[in-house]
Write a structure and sequence with these properties.
It contains 18 helices and 25 strands. The chain has 574 residues and is α+β, with helices and mostly antiparallel strands. Strands 1, 2, 3, 4, 5, 6, 7, 8 and 9 form a nine-stranded mixed sheet that branches. Strands 10-11-16-13-14 form a five-stranded mixed sheet, with helices on both faces. A four-stranded antiparallel sheet has the order 19-20-21-25.
Length: 574
């Protein structure tokens, strides 16, 4: 095939593919243009998850009538004059691609008026073809109306996710920018329903309260490091966590970035403070000289490159650690007693060398490479167990006919609760009405997830109803879960849903109940009475799948008699 120059419309659509990945990409580009124009109020209206309409209006500086045609041309910008300017970028946009790219894959209308003029202008762009400019009377600022996104690129349209996912992407994006620019009034409407409204007061904690509730906002710790690399924002204390990283947000010089090194620096500061699989909430803002960061390394400007990444990493880690120590003092932990002799730290206690061998062998048992194979339990069941006691307020010790069992009380209780609730699958679960309804506030993207599952929650015994923007009222919980924090139980329903997940209805139900059971189960560190320990063992023995919790974590470790005899030198000693 001979080499030839691409047609203009094909080249434009290829370029648009780099900038306009989904409806949220359109919102991002338009919102950043509005912020660059000095807008103090930004209103966004979305219909059908952005497929039908995305309209953004701002009160920024506007566009001169003489520049309207240039504004929608490719690589036309007022923010760069030379290549050298790429290393001194202080604006969010600079490539001059946004409007041209959006216009090439939609029907777009641009209306704008500068404050010094009494008349504005309007131009229509359809599939990259520009119409003529018309004079109109409008308030100062700019309105961009994007209709029928990807109408001329049906392949791209097919790759969009569900409406719930695309709406969630838009909600999360606008939420982040509302936190980054608290002095700007943001309004977001999805299908005519208000999702987010901020006052522009400049108080970030006020926005946190609107998004996560007053209780969460009150708990958030303030980060403030005023050095060559300034780090400010909010992080959660170690008691407030999530099961994923979605609520970790970084802005660099006012630009939202997704940088694994920054997230790693944050998590390093929390090292040893959080349980495995738990992550903090964080909204952090980095300010450094434009020369120290390259923002021109990603088509959608979602990634950046630092000239001195180690210094940036250190600044984030130090600022977060300082906030954690200031607000939540961390006790110094003594050296583990099994690691060294208590009187001569340089000398390993010989008594623990055999224990080391035992730990090695137990590790090999866990990985399935035991020297002495452990006997399999028939059909995944557990035999009748005799309770010995509780260790570390976290594990039950029990004796069976074939050895010793160490049982994780939290994982075991999760399994027991899960199977009790799932056995009620054929009939509506019994509810327990709360004496005082609990109120829960969720971020906009989580609100829609919960709304999708209200019917399932009701089936399993919850009574949850909308109670204002991003707010729900919990009136009842399943009778089996009485005693747990109802707001926490409902919050966990939406906490772990994977992006773009579209499971079958019965899978949704199982996932929801597994999450609620995790929150309701007894915790490690909780001392149980002898009767409670006995009851937990009996309930676990009756389970269909007692060996793992609903999330797949083992509920018990089995130490066979043979293994114990080997370790005590009674059989096959080496």
């Amino acid at each position: 095939m001979p080499i030839r120059i691409l047609a203009d419309d094909v080249a434009s659509q290829i370029a648009a593919g780099e900038v306009v990945e989904r409806p949220a990409s359109v919102v991002k580009e338009l919102m950043e243009n509005a912020l660059d124009a000095g807008a103090q109020a930004i209103s966004i209206r979305v219909e059908q998850a952005g497929r039908k309409l995305i309209e953004l209006a701002d009160d920024g500086s506007g566009i001169e009538i003489s520049d309207m045609q240039l504004a929608v041309a490719r690589h036309a910008t007022s923010k760069l004059n030379s290549a050298e300017d790429l290393f001194h970028i202080r604006s969010l946009g600079f490539r001059g691609e946004a409007l041209a790219s959006i216009g090439s894959v939609s029907r777009m209308m641009l209306i704008s008026r500068v404050k010094s003029s009494n008349i504005g202008a309007r131009i229509l762009i359809e599939g990259g073809r520009n119409g003529s400019i018309e004079q109109v009377g409008i308030p100062a600022g700019t309105v961009v109306r994007v209709e029928d996104l990807f109408y001329n690129v049906p392949a791209r349209l097919k790759f969009l996710k569900s409406d719930m996912t695309e709406r969630g992407q838009i909600n999360a994006l606008v939420t982040r920018y509302a936190l980054a620019y608290p002095w700007v009034r943001f309004e977001l409407l999805q299908d005519g329903k208000p999702v987010l409204r901020t006052t522009g007061s400049g108080d970030r904690r006020e926005i946190l309260a609107q998004l996560y509730g007053a209780d969460v906002a009150h708990q958030m710790l303030e980060v403030s490091l005023e050095e060559e690399i300034a780090v400010t924002g909010y992080i959660s204390p170690v008691a407030l966590t999530r099961s994923n990283r979605r609520e970790i947000t970084f802005f660099v010089n006012g630009r939202w970035v997704q940088d694994t090194a920054l997230i790693s620096a944050l998590l390093q500061a929390y090292h040893t403070l959080l349980m495995i699989g738990r992550y903090p909430l964080a909204v952090l803002f980095l300010q450094l000289e434009p020369e120290e960061v390259d923002v021109n390394v990603h088509p959608a400007k979602a990634e950046v490159r630092f000239r001195q990444p180690d210094k940036v990493f250190s600044a984030v880690q130090r600022s977060v650690k300082r906030a954690l120590l200031a607000y939540s003092p961390v006790p110094n932990l003594a050296t583990p007693y099994w690691s060294a002799h208590p009187f001569q730290q340089s000398t390993i206690d010989p008594a623990w060398e055999m224990a080391g061998d035992l730990r090695s062998e137990l590790a090999s048992v866990h990985t399935g490479e035991a020297i002495t194979p452990q006997p399999e339990l028939p059909s995944g069941k557990v035999p009748l167990l005799r309770l010995v006691g509780q260790v570390g307020a976290a594990y039950l010790v029990a004796e069976g006919p074939d050895g010793l069992y160490l049982i994780d009380q939290h994982a075991a209780h999760e399994r027991v609760l899960f199977e009790k609730i799932m056995r009620q699958h054929t009939q509506k679960a019994v509810s327990q009405t709360l004496m005082e309804p609990a109120i829960i506030v969720l971020p906009p993207q989580s609100t829609q997830l919960l709304e999708q599952q209200l019917g399932v929650l009701s089936y399993f015994g919850f009574d949850v109803e909308p109670f204002g923007p991003n707010t729900f009222r919990v009136r009842a919980v399943p009778a089996l879960l009485v005693g747990i924090d109802p707001a926490a139980a409902v919050r966990v329903v939406v906490e772990d849903f994977e992006e773009d997940e579209a499971p079958l209805a019965n899978e949704v139900e199982a996932k929801i109940i597994a999450r609620v059971c995790k929150r309701a189960a007894v915790k490690a560190g909780q001392i149980l009475t002898n009767e409670e320990q006995q009851a937990l063992l009996r309930d676990l023995e009756a389970c269909q799948s007692p060996r793992t919790c609903p999330h797949g974590r083992p509920t018990m470790i089995h130490l066979s008699v043979d293994l114990l005899e080997r370790q005590f030198g009674r059989r096959g000693s080496r």
